[in-house]
Amino acid sequence: MNLLVVFIFQAIKSLIMKSKVLQKEIVDEGKGKATAKEFYKRHHRWTEGLISAAKAVGWGAKVLVDSADKVVQGEGKFEEIVVASNEITASTVQLVAASRVKARQTSTGLSAVQGASRNVVASAAGVVASAKTGAEMIEDSKAVPDYSKLTLTQAKRFEMESQVRVLELESQLTKERQKLGVLRKAHYQLAAVEEGLDAD
């Protein structure tokens, strides 16, 4: 796990450094006779999007590693790792998309950013896979209850408790999916508003 953690932070460091190089290239080519400061002021939405995406990638990596450590120690939830990994992937895609908006398609800087982004996603997937293996080993080491020794009354009680738990989980899942749908809708609306402001 430690080696994978090193890999993901190295990959993110490389992505951010290559993004800065590409950003400078974009500014130098796009500012014309204006200063870099004037270019950033004129395209502040694009700049903010680029910076926020880069920060989100770094934040996601920290959450991913912290969650993975907890899962391997038998204290955390594997689902937290999956969510953190998805956040890293989404933020990396956002970073590449923001770079592509202003960069030339033939730019070597853009190609470097795209390559670095693939390394970040692959490294995140490696942490997820490693944590999953660790979690499965912990689960396998736990003693499985011997249900064959239960009385009829005990077996019926456990069965009813299990059915209740299944219904509770299904209800929670439905509510979380509805919540996720509302959040995604709000996110798309905010993105559309920002794009509209950029167009103005």
Characterise this structure.
The structure is a single chain. With 200 residues, the chain is an all-alpha fold. It has 6 helices and no strands. The protein has helices at residues 2-30, 36-42, 44-72, 78-102, 108-141, 152-199. The longest helix is centred in the C-terminal third of the chain and has 48 residues, at 152-199. It is elongated. 22% of the residues are buried. The mean pLDDT is 81.
Write the layout of secondary structure elements.
Blueprint: H1 2-30, H2 36-42, H3 44-72, H4 78-102, H5 108-141, H6 152-199
Helix pairs in contact: 1-3, 1-5, 3-4, 3-5, 4-5
Short description:
This protein is mainly α.
Most strands sheet? none
**What is the percent of helical residues?**
over 70%
Q: How many angstroms does the end-to-end distance come to?
A: 48 Å
Q: Which overall shape is indicated by the principal axes computed on the Cα atoms? A: elongated
- In terms of per-residue confidence, which ranges show pLDDT below 50 for 5 or more consecutive residues? none
Features of the shown structure:
single chain, 200 residues, mainly alpha, elongated, Sla2_fam
